[in-house]
Write a structure and sequence with these properties.
The protein contains six helices and no strands. By secondary structure, it is mainly α. Among the domains are: about 45-90; about 115-150. The protein has helices spanning about 1-15, 25-40, 50-75, 80-95, 95-115, 120-145. Helix content is about 80%, strand content about 0%. It starts with a helix and ends with a helix.
Length: about 150
C-alpha cells in the first residue's frame, strides 16, 4: 500500500513540473548525426548488391581461386618452394607413428565404452540431453528478461 502511495505522489510531482525546452542547436545536431549515420553504407547481403558489383566480385574471386590453383599446380617447379614441400612431405611420412598412437587411444575408448554398459551410457545421454534443454530454456528466459519491455 505504501508503494502505491509513493508512486502516486511521485507521479503527481513529476506532472506538476514545467515543460523544459530543448537547447537551441539540439535539433540541428540530432539531424546532422542522423544524416551522418545514413551516409555510412550499411552491411547488406551479397544478393542485395547491384548486378555489376556482384559480377565484379564474383570475377575477382574466380581469378583468385584460379591463381591459387595455378600456384599449387606449378609450385613444385620452383626451387625454394620444392624444398619446402619436400620437408612437409617428410613430416607427413612420420605420421605413421601418430596414427598408431591414435589407434591405441581409440581401442582404449572402445574398451571403456563396452565395459560401462548400455544402461549407464543411455543415462549419460539422457542427462546430457536434459542439460542441453535446460541451458536453452534458461538462456531464452534470461534473454527475454534482459530484452523485455519495461
Amino acid at each position: 500500500m505504501e508503494q502505491d502511495n509513493w508512486e502516486k505522489r511521485l507521479d503527481r510531482e513529476l506532472k506538476s513540473l514545467p515543460l523544459m525546452k530543448a537547447p537551441e542547436g539540439l535539433s540541428a545536431r540530432v539531424m546532422a548525426a542522423v544524416a551522418a549515420r545514413a551516409a555510412v553504407p550499411q552491411q547488406r547481403s551479397w544478393m542485395e548488391w547491384s548486378r555489376p558489383v556482384r559480377l565484379l566480385s564474383a570475377s575477382l574471386l574466380w581469378l583468385l581461386f584460379a591463381g591459387i590453383c595455378l600456384l599449387v599446380w606449378k609450385a613444385p617447379a620452383f626451387g625454394p618452394v620444392a624444398s619446402g614441400l619436400e620437408s612437409v612431405r617428410n613430416g607427413l611420412a612420420s605420421g605413421g607413428m601418430w596414427l598408431g598412437v591414435l589407434e591405441a587411444l581409440g581401442g582404449a575408448c572402445r574398451l571403456a565404452v563396452r565395459s560401462l554398459g548400455n544402461g549407464f551410457l543411455m543415462g549419460c545421454a539422457v542427462a546430457a540431453g536434459m542439460a542441453y534443454v535446460a541451458c536453452v530454456g534458461l538462456g531464452t528466459a534470461y534473454l527475454r528478461l534482459a530484452l523485455g519491455r519495461r
